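Bit of a strange request maybe. I'm writing a small parser for structure token strings and I need a real example to test against, not something I typed by hand. Could someone generate the tokens for this chain?
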Amino acid sequence: MAEEKPSGLDERRAGFARYKKDVKERGKSFYPYAMFHDTVMSLIVVSVIVGLAVIWKWTSYGPHHDGLHKGLIGPEYAPPADPGTVSFVPRPDWYFYFLFYLLRIFKWPETVFLGTIGVPTIALILLLALPFMDLRRERRPSRRPVAMVAAVLTIFSMGILTWKGATAKEALASEVIADVPSWVSAEKLPATALPGAKLFATAGCTACHTYLGTGSSNLGAPDLTAIGARNLGISFQIRHLQCPSCVTPGSPMPKFASLGTARLQELAVFLESSKGKR
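Reply from user aminoacidic:
Good idea to test on real output. This should exercise your parser:
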């Protein structure tokens, strides 16, 4: 009668039993050895954090004690934010630069979901599934070519995306404002609408609205190419820009009252002058 070949589960159980026996004979107990190593490493990490905090605090104090002096690590705090700015481009923290640049690759509205949710979620699922897919006990890198190549490619990709995200120049506003002459030509905009067109291009309006094919359609925001054909009026446009949810209940559009009356007037003139391509 042929000897029955042990199953994969039996082999793993036998290997685990050998591992436990080896640990019992030659290994070291968790206390005090592993606990001592963890305690020392924790103290080193906390000491580095405290040291960096002290250096940041005392080198940024400055001769005028205003907290704006740039020390070795940076200023204590930045100048107050200007809520009416139209030139500030927000950037994420450095550990999100890879995702920040991924959005430049998947920049079309139809692919934004894939770049923000799809790719990171697929990568996370593969990472969580890896221990259940690879059941071998072999840990030597030379005998794990697939795992090592995948790890190197992942690290390389994350590094490149992080570097590209950190060095990327924010050309979005300049790209949009370059379309203003074509807007003027296609819409036959008057000279009085030009300041508002430039403000529309730089104030981030195209993050949610589209205008003659420029921009993105998000959160149900309408195309504004022919918004002036509705003849809503300058005063309505200004009131809507100051408080969209007050004029249109439930509107997710943020308030633009911080732009000031003069600039809101320019935007309103531009929107009312936009009658569609002519």
